[in-house]
Amino acid sequence: xxxxxxxxxxxxxxxxxxxxxxxxxxxxxxxxxxxxxxxxxxxxxxxxxxxxxxxxxxxxxxxxxxxxxxxxxxxxxxxxxxxxxxxxxxxxxxxxxxxxxxxxxxxxxxxxxxxxxxxxxxxxxxxxxxxxxxxxxxxxxxxxxxxxxxxxxxxxxxxxxxxxxxxxxxxxxxxxxxxxxxxxxxxxxxxxxxxxxxxxxxxxxxxxxxxxxxxxxxxxxxxxxxxxxxxxxxxxxxxxxxxxxxxxxxxxxxxxxxxxxxxxxxxxxxxxxxxxxxxxxxxxxxxxxxxxxxxxxxxxxxxxxxxxxxxxxxxxxxxxxxxxxxxxxxxxxxxxxxxxxxxxxxxxxxxxxxxxxxxxxx
Length: 362
Fold this sequence. Notes:
The chain is an alpha/beta fold. The protein has twelve helices and 16 strands. The chain has helices at residues 4-40, 47-58, 64-89, 103-111, 123-131, 151-159, 194-199, 201-207, 217-227, 238-244, 291-301, 334-343; strands spanning 93-97, 116-120, 137-144, 148-149, 163-171, 175-178, 189-192, 210-213, 232-236, 247-250, 260-267, 278-285, 306-313, 321-328, 347-356, 360-361. Helix 1 packs across helix 3 and helix 2 (47-58) runs antiparallel to helix 3 (64-89).
């Protein structure tokens, strides 16, 4: 005679067998998702997508008690899927400008945690490494809240063929780093990138430190680590301190206000995804009175809100400029296509250079 326990075990065994087959099928689909993300330079975690899946799938469970357990189950399943994709990501090559410990190195690691980060000597080298197929994506700064736009990156995007497939905000915290056995009384001079020294000017003056310029904050930290000089300090990130075996003597010394850098992920192909809801346009206008005003009017006419507008000089034409604009909304709509069509009549050159999710913080 079959007991209830035997019957329950039989059902569980049958379900487990089906779930094993479905698990493999789901993970094969995760592989396809990763290949798509790799091609378009997208991060593995898409929180909005995961939240939507949880909301949609949990609605199919009517039992309110079981629904809570199902939500935990689907969250765990998606976590496993991400882990598998991170394992595949270990072969992704991400180019950045600077050395290990630089803020671009930190940003690259936070966007693509399991990737191989490739240091390049400058912005153009990082950009070209993607163009030439030596790297899959590049992570380059486009704007700093303290110092403004990063013109070199913007120029590369305007003149080249790579697309922005994400913009991420990294809050910059500057710290005083020193050798492990040094004290604040030992420090007489600090070295860092001129911008970092400027951001920490008030602190430096209050301590009466001498200053010395370095190519970037990570180079400064490395110099201190190799100096065996307790009187020399560096201004850099806490992550950089760990890399070079230094001590954080005083933290968050940039008292000049908010300091955030926006980094763009650049890829050979342009991504389209509901989570990438904002667009980046670049254009030049005809050399006629009111051309720029007409272009801006067209953007507003179709209901797009401009969140950024910058001008940059054209390198080969004195006193002529191109424009960089960020807008709320996708151009992959009827309104977007009509806007672009009308813009093309008042612009000499017009490019949709990318899409991104607004306010993506690292």
